């Protein structure tokens, strides 16, 4: 360097004098601007002492790149091992994906592939949004919208139908019993009347106290003195049937036969 009083030698022949050449024995390097001990020519980040290499060529040095070999990722904010670009929840280490895009991560989402559902609070395998009773594992539908689940309503209707059937059976039994009693009473009444009619002798009315009849009866007695004739027949206040005979005696009916009254 005949015209440069600060330089006299160029050991590596790179055109930069040894005094100002950072790598006097390396013709490919002459400066290390950021002082990281990697020459500027080899340093991808010559002005950044923290970086020298960018393996995946994504513009972020390997030291600062959480994924130095993945050009699509550089940061993992929640440190869950999934880069922020791929992480649906970059600030939530418990979630990385949202398959159904419903805003709830797959890990917490009861139905990760159904955007209409995220929870099943009562564990009945029907999501809360579709479940008319999300906190009752025994019910899911309320078809008529009356606030009573279909299962409970079906049970109530079945119980009501059974009760109605039992009530009808009891009513029919009562009706049958009443009819049977009526028939029995009628039968007994008819039987008693028949017996009473058959036990009564043929009643012959005679003129009692009538002079003409009396004379007729007397003539009959005279005509057949050996045979008693009925002069009169009546029933007293006690219900006994009496006969006055031609010999002056009185007979009463005891239910089976005529008995002479002494």
Structure commentary:
This protein is α+β, with helices and mostly antiparallel strands and 262 residues long. Among the domains are: 164-199; 211-261, no CATH class. The chain is 24% helix and 7% strand. The chain is built from two helices and four strands; from the N terminus they run ααββββ. It has helices at 150-199, 211-223; strands at 230-235, 241-245, 250-253, 258-261. The protein has a four-stranded antiparallel beta sheet, with no helix packed on it. Strand 2 and strand 3 form a beta hairpin. It is rod-shaped. 8% of the residues are buried.
Report the strand count.
4
- Average pLDDT, to the nearest integer? 90
* Strand adjacency order, main sheet: 1-2-3-4
**Beta-strand content estimate:** 5-15%
Structural class: alpha+beta
Computed CA radius of gyration, to the nearest angstrom: 65 Å
Question: CA-to-CA gap between the ends?
Answer: 190 Å
Low-pLDDT runs of 5+ residues are: 203-225
Determine the number of helices (DSSP H or I, runs of at least 4 residues): 2
**Which geometry do the CA atoms define?**
rod-shaped
Largest sheet: 4 strands, antiparallel
Query: How much helix is in the residues?
Result: 10-25%
Order of helices and strands: HHEEEE
Keywords:
262 residues; alpha+beta; 2 helices
Write the layout of secondary structure elements.
Blueprint: H1 150-199, H2 211-223, E1 230-235, E2 241-245, E3 250-253, E4 258-261
Antiparallel strand pairs: 1-2, 2-3, 3-4
């Amino acid at each position: 360097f005949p015209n440069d009083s600060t330089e006299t030698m160029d050991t590596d022949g790179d055109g930069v004098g040894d005094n100002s050449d950072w790598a006097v024995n390396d013709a490919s390097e002459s400066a290390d601007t950021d002082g990281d001990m990697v020459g500027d020519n080899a340093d991808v980040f010559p002005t950044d002492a923290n970086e020298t290499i960018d393996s995946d060529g994504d513009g972020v040095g390997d030291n600062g790149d959480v994924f130095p070999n993945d050009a699509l990722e550089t940061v993992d904010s929640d440190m869950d091992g999934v880069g922020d670009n791929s992480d649906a929840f970059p600030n939530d280490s418990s979630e990385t994906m949202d398959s159904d895009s419903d805003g709830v991560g797959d890990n917490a989402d009861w139905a990760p592939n159904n955007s209409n559902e995220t929870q099943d609070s009562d564990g009945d395998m029907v999501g809360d949004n579709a479940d008319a009773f999300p906190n009752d594992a025994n019910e899911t539908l309320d078809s008529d919208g009356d606030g009573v689940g279909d299962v409970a309503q079906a049970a109530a209707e079945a119980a009501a139908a059974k009760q109605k059937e039992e009530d009808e059976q009891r009513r029919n039994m009562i009706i049958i019993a009443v009819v049977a009693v009526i028939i029995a009473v009628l039968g007994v009444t008819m039987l008693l009347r028949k017996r009473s009619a058959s036990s009564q002798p043929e009643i012959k009315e005679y003129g009692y106290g009538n002079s003409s009849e009396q004379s007729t009866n007397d003539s009959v007695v005279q005509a057949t003195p050996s045979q008693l004739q009925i002069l009169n027949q009546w029933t007293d206040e006690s219900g006994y049937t009496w006969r006055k005979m031609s010999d002056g005696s009185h007979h009463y009916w005891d239910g089976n036969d005529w008995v002479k009254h002494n």
